[in-house]
Amino acid sequence: AWDYLLEYTQDIEGVVYNVAELRADFPNGARFRLFGADNYDAMRGLYFDSVVLDEPADFPANAWPSVIRPSLTDRKGKATFIGTPKGKNEFWDIYNNAKANDNWFCAMYKADETDILDKEELDEAKQTMGEDRFAQEFMCSFEAAIQGAYYAQEMKTAKTEDRITSVPYDPAASVITSFDLGIGDSTAIWFAQFVGQEIHLIDYYENSGVGLDHYAKVLHDKGYHYESHILPHDVRVKELGTGKSRLETLDNLGVRNIEIAPRLSVDDGIQAARSMLNKCWFDEEKCERGIEALLQYRREFDEKLKSWRGRPLHDWTSHGADSFRYLAVGYRPHQDWGEPIKRNLQGIA
User: Fold this and answer.
1) Domains, the chain, ordered by start
2) pLDDT in tens, the chain (349 residues)
């Protein structure tokens, strides 16, 4: 982007460039500046007449609502979003809000509708790139599988088999929850019922910036009958401020029957989650954000080496995916052996 700026402004007399700040000052007092979304806090306290967000699907979740949007308020500035879909994340929300808002202009330009590329070229690209990548990059699909996603195939199968549908709470069965407890990050909770050979994901909840008392209240207000609550192993760690662990705090808040998930490697946990996904049914409405987290949870990509790293990318999807992983490794079905077997034993004379 900086090279484009230099190219298109080179004929304007009096432009002053500041390479260190990626800034151009124009003779009429206007200023153009580039920022990286990975350091969006650098924009705090600044004010803009207009911002252009390139590839907003890659932005941190808090960049637009917490920093960039407030920077437009004083000057009643404008925002332009230009990007490629990458699942139903914040960019998806902004796109749909724009479609429903008369104050916004919204357009989607699919490659087969613009006539910029001919059909032969598009067919060749599709054959080379594969269905999902082509659908995302050329056809603006928010539904296409994310490259490097851990659970892409399992979630695609769940959709194909109509296992993402309406899954109501069954009062005859108990509910097992799994938590990913965040400190400064989001906390994510899955609500599951194990019914025969099926696993029903009936609900999902996520929030941040609130205490454990909030989540205890959420559990109570749901009105479910709970069998157990699966939490990560670090729930036993005592906090310096209170001298209590979060396990003790939850117990004091009335959250009982807590199970601690075994401390397995992330890779082992992901494999356990993959195996469990083949038995899962998801409530499409109540679990919408959790489903998207599983669809988009992916490996970290090394831009320098152009290869996938051996660890997950930590972003908003991590919370729901980690919570699901704890459910996969932490649930131990209750064994009901029934009455003792009675045998008519005869003595030996």
Assistant:
1) 2-99 (3.40.50.300), 115-144 (no CATH), 152-330 (3.30.420.280)
2) 889 999 999 899 999 999 999 999 999 999 999 999 888 999 998 999 999 999 998 888 889 999 999 999 999 999 999 999 888 788 888 998 999 999 999 999 999 999 899 999 999 999 998 888 888 899 998 877 677 889 988 998 999 999 999 999 999 999 999 999 887 678 999 999 999 999 999 999 999 888 899 999 999 999 999 999 999 988 888 775 677 888 999 999 999 999 999 989 999 999 999 999 999 999 999 999 999 999 989 988 776 666 777 789 888 899 999 999 999 999 987 655 455 555 554 555 4
199, β-bridge pairs: 194, 280
Q: Residue 208: is it exposed, middle or buried by C-beta count within 10 angstroms (0-12/13-18/19+)?
A: middle
